[in-house]
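Much of the work behind modern protein science is quiet bookkeeping, done one molecule at a time. The fold becomes a row of whole numbers, each drawn from a learned catalogue of backbone shapes. The protein below has been through that process, and both of its lines are reproduced in full.
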Amino acid sequence: MANRFTILKNSKIRYFDTLLLLILMLIIIFGLVMLYSVSSYDGSVNYGDSAYYLKRQLGATVFGLILMGIVAFLPYHLWEKLRVFVYLFAVLMLLLIIPFGTRVNGAKRWIYIGGVSIQPAEIAKFAIVVLLAQLLVRLGSKINSWKGLLVAVAPSVPLIGMIYIITGNLSSAIIVAAITFVLCFVASSDYKKFLIVILALIAIAALYIFIVVKNNEGGMGFRGERILAWLDPDAYASGKGYQTLQALYAIGSGGFMGKGIGESMQKLGYIPEAQNDMIFAIICEEIGFIGAVCIIVMFLLLIWRFVIIATNAPDLYGALLVVGVMSHIAIQVILNIAVVTNTIPNTGISLPFISYGGSSVVILLIEIGLVLSVQRSIKYRDVV
């Protein structure tokens, strides 16, 4: 046994994380199964095809897996050279929404090219990971100063502003900001600044909620109404609180074991477009608390594999790329479940690999390709 360890330690065999791919495929397959179950009624009623959403998501997933494989075999340092191009491409796509964007359900967030929809906000999430990872490496210890921190945050500000102003997509803007925060936090050794930022954000949020409640939403727009609906969904059951209440009904009716796959009642038009942001509620209804816990555990296992790869990455740039992808997925999972359970105010955040959305799944799989590219540079002798 000792000889075998010595041979393995001194070998130059590349590390391959089979478990990461297995977990990823389990999440993807589970997501496709649940997507079909959740969307079959809507697909039949609106498109005459119960598999309408499944077919489109499956196509995007296959395309994303192909891109994931290509990115995985590219040297990850290539993205250091492409970072500015990727960032400017994200900016350009966001700007193109102004003249060419298509409005869906009151939101102008998509560009249609040949019948294929692209959501530029998803590209922005990928762009900030690629750009910021390299910028933080260049800054080095300067990130510990306020000036260095501001320099690191600067590229995110235009993306956050354009996402919010052009598309009105607050959730994607928050995710870009959160990815930036996590990457800067990991790269820094001075955590006091981040504690100050967190406390300031909590204070601002608390003040905003206080103003909304005091004015009873008056003049605060639909976001103010969403906060009031979050605090008292029953009072807004016919408006902004409707979707939240239906989601909570779904979660409650699922109980411990669930009603069974395909047996949801809330997906029959009670939760509008349940295959999108509220799919976790239907998962709880159909496979119960046990199913919900299994999904959360699978995501935790995925995050764990990211941590292993980031810890053993050959350099800081590779580690930060993995941390950026990890933060993107973890933040969306946390926020999606928090919204569905009414822990935070309702805002449109998809559940990675499970909610319907071609742009999201393609970008997420490209990001997984980045992680696999970093993983390929790890030697067995380096793994801890």
Notes: The first strand starts at residue 102 and ends at 104. The beta strands are 102-104, 107-113, 116-118. The two ends are 18 Å apart (CA to CA). The chain is about 70% helix and 5% strand.
